[in-house]
Amino acid sequence: MSDTVIHIDNLENRFGTTVVHQGLNLSVMRGEILGVVGGSGTGKSVLLRSIVGLKPIDDGDIHVFGQRLAALDRRQRAAVERRFGVLFQQGALYSSLNLLENVALPLVEHTPLSRPEAEQIARMKLALVGLPAGAAEQMPAALSGGMIKRAALARALALDPDVLFLDEPTAGLDPISAARFDQLLLTLRDALGFSVFLVTHDLDTLYSVCDRVAVLARKQVLVADTLENVAATQDDWIQDYFHGPRGRAAYASMKENR
Amino acid sequence: MDDLSNTSGSSPGSVPSSAPLARIETNQQLTLSGTWTLAYFHAIKKQLSTHDAKHIERLSLEPVTQLDTAAAQLMIEWFGSERMQQQANHLPDQRRQLILSVIEALEVVAEAPETPARTGFQRLGDSLARLGQQVTALFTQQLYLLGFLGVVLAAFGRTFWRPGRWRLTATVAHIHQTGLNAVPIVVLLTFMVGAVVAFLGATVLTTFGATIYTVNLVVFSFLREFGVLLAAIMLAGRTASAFTAQLGAMKSNEEIDALRTQGLDPIELLVLPRVIALWVSLPLLAFIGTLSGMLGGAVVGAVSLDIPFAQFWQIVQRDISVRHLWVGLSKAPLFALVIAIIGCAEGFKVSGSAQSVGERTTSSVVQSIFMVILLDALAALYFMQMGW
Ligand SMILES: Nc1ncnc2c1ncn2[C@@H]1O[C@H](COP(=O)(O)OP(=O)(O)OP(=O)(O)O)[C@@H](O)[C@H]1O
Ligand SMILES: [Mg+2]
């Protein structure tokens, strides 16, 4: 079995006449954390939605775990989707369920676990992502943005997925929580060996957790390589991104930490 | 990458997996092997329950091919977090980190205060308290509505003298939506009710040989009650809900807060146009409904009661004074105000979630229909006493 969990080939995505992606190629390796960066509106979220099957693609191929996504029937597809964990940009917690039920829902639906067993695990997952014990019974509407992100991560982790898709997970977190989130992601990835497709604008996250970085611009992936190689790429946007004031600061602090 | 743990077990068929196993070795050492993942949750529970944690001194986790958080949790709960922590020290870095994270998480979970079970007596108290809460909620709701009405009237008073601040476009758009677009359904509804009333009247009145009075019955009931009542109920269902949903979605999207922070008055911008639109629409719809209901009665009369249109019209002109129309229509602006105020006020009460929008919408329809019927009954009493 190959070490590529996701392989995207010549992908095209359109909304009406607006072309979001054209001739886009990208691979995600087993166990890696792939950072996906790009300006606002370059189609990072759309790319994520295409891979997890929420947006039908207009052209090209997406292979997931060696299977062609478009060729799968409904049951096979559901089996593939169960191996994904997705954290949406807005959290997308089920607003009529409290946090505990949010996390327990996939466990109850997809495994033979009883509800008390599922809730027991759900409590652990909520604590694992750094939520206080009292939060389990709260409704999503009563939470701050950062807490929603954490709870959504707990839900994405509920089934111990093979690939975790995170859409700007640290946006809206305070720097300390963001750093802890990064650390948590590394710990879990190292322990569980899942791959991570991480859309982010957070340079610190990029420097501290990503094994490779893919840059989305001009409807394509410009480069997908290690951070050093990407930062050295001759492209105006990339140069601005990595060597602008924020980029330099994040780079310096990474050097210090190593 | 640690290739022992490079795929989680919730993925049947992806990697070779084998059932989890816990086996006693010498010296109170328990050796665990196989796949320790969520997919084998119950098997893991069973394996662990066959051994008594007290008699085990050491755990050997090396033969475990896959370990995930759910299985780690079971293991820790069975073996105890302190002893597990010691065991974890002997493990490779990544697995140790996993176990330590889960231990840490479980400590947080354990901190949660246990909620003691309620006794039967306490539960009775709880339900009494709920009843009390509902009664007070009902009272505060009416206060809130009155307050909202006051705010709207104040805004109306402020803008009335300044035509520059009238939101004509918005108001006309709302008249279009709530008035014009509701005409077909109101016409259809009142026509059918008119026909039904005529049939009903005929059935009862024929026994007295007074079939001709069906005309009076239909016309009276529509002029005084049904025209305006049916139109109002229709709008309560159709428009109050729409107002609540529109404003509620804006509220949960923080749009209303955004208006406020920009120094704009949401009441003036959003509520006033809706209230005024309904004020204009409902009397018109009530009038159309009255005519259509009478037409329904007339059609039934002509088709099955041998009362031709001409005769119907003649009786209307001879027997029935136009006063009844005014009595009926005079209620329309009041109903319109009640429906619009309830619809908008409920929209403003939405908090956060989408579920709240749904709850408020239901509540606004129920309340506005209830208030319309209640007010109509009071008005009927009043008009009767006054002899109008
Ligand atoms: N449902 C949709 N209908 C039409 N256009 C859409 C839709 N969803 C996204 N787009 C367009 O696709 C483009 C990419 O959007 P996307 O949300 O993927 O951006 P993004 O890279 O995630 O940006 P951000 O960093 O701001 O989240 C945008 O130009 C957007 O207008
Ligand atoms: Mg996005």
From TrEMBL, chain B:
A GO MF label: phospholipid transporter activity
Pfam families: MlaE
Cellular localization per UniProt: Cell inner membrane
Membrane topology term: Multi-pass membrane protein
Keyword Nuclease annotated: no
Keywords, sorted A to Z: Cell inner membrane, Cell membrane, Membrane, Transmembrane, Transmembrane helix
InterPro entries: ABC_MlaE_roteobac, Permease_MalE
Residue ranges, compositional bias (Low complexity): 8-18
An annotated GO cellular component: ATP-binding cassette (ABC) transporter complex
Residues passing through the membrane, by range: 143-161, 182-206, 226-248, 294-313, 325-345, 365-384
Start and end residues of each stretch annotated as Disordered: 1-20
Family assignment from sequence similarity: Belongs to the MlaE permease family.
Protein name listed in UniProt: ABC transporter permease
Native source species: Vreelandella azerica
Taxonomic path: Bacteria, Pseudomonadati, Pseudomonadota, Gammaproteobacteria, Oceanospirillales
